Amino acid sequence: MVKRILGTLGTLMLATAIGCGGGMYEAKADAPPPMSPGAYASAAPMDESTLGGLAAGIRGPMMDGAIASNGPAPAPTSTAPAPQGSEAFQQHGPMLVYTATIHLAVFQVAEASKQVEVMSREAGGFLARRDDQSIVIRVPVARFEETMKRLEKLGDVLHRNVVAEDVTEQYMDAEVRLKNARAVRDRLQQLLEKASKVEDSLAIEKELTRIGNDIETLEGKLKYLRDRAQYSTITVNFQAKQTDNVNASSVRMPIDWLNNLGLGRLLSL
Amino acid sequence: MKKLLLVLTSALALAALSGCRPFAPATPPGFVDLSDSYSSDEYRSTTADGMVLGVRAFKNKPKGELPFWTKVVENRMRDTSGYALLETKDVKDRSGNIGKQLRFGHDESAVPHLYYVTIFVNDDHVYVLEAGGTKDLVTKHEPQIAWSIENFLQK
Is B39 within 8 Å of chain A by CB? Predict the structure, then answer.
């Protein structure tokens, strides 16, 4: 009996391992479409604009300097049923994570930083991090292009970098593995119900625990990838515009020996 | 005859040396005078463990009074060099001239240091007496620092 159960487990594990490859994707035609807006909506609460942004975010590549022409488009208005399986990718294109960095020369850094934060909120995003010289915001992917254009008006753009990372394969792989892991879990649960010996039950429960951990890890990875695809990350680095070096609080006296005061000189014997 | 010549030469050398310096420093017990290694208008002495005293004289040009030079040094150390002014004290030298001592604190490589700058001013010179080292050392040598100031002589 134990041998039979272990043999079945082995077969299931093998199926899970094979499932890691893209080849298994076609076999799960009854699975929810991984890239359809509905799939994201069920996994994480979001409003319509966010859903639209996501749909836009998986449309196509956007490279540096091509934001205006190839940036994320508005949400699709079609109510047609979502395509199944790999058709979703064929129709929508890759799942992209947008990350941008802008170096801006501005007159008043603090004021500009506040404006960036306001822009992120107006775009439905949020502040991720801020210090004296930089700010990191996250905005729905549908508002990425618009936010970039608004940011560029805050000052002189010294440098801009936009990266579109294609995480489609990672996402698909994790999703297929998750589906297979769930199937293994279900099968193990069925076996557990039928197990008549204590040692069989223990062996199956041990395997159930392991597969449960795998499922949690894969769910976390999918959530993380969805979050990255839904919200673009924009880092704005500020540089104060060059002005005359006026410091009203300290007058520089034209007396040379004042420059030679301090512990550094005194203790250099 | 040779002895007399040696004594005369030594006396002349000493006179020449002290004559160049517009001040006469006072080296406290436990400190060694390092003046030989410095120019004639600068004095340095140190203990074996690294507590250092220094005296320098500068021409009082542009001509200013004690409050002016005190404020200039204070601003310089606080605004530009990042030292914290801990205390200001009135001091006197051996002739009874009044000076001002500024006591600064400063962290060097996360180690607290103290730096005392004492200023005396006359028509011709601004005298800057410095004392510095780690906080422990300076605190330990407070009496010697005070003694070196009380026995300092302007020329």
Answer: no
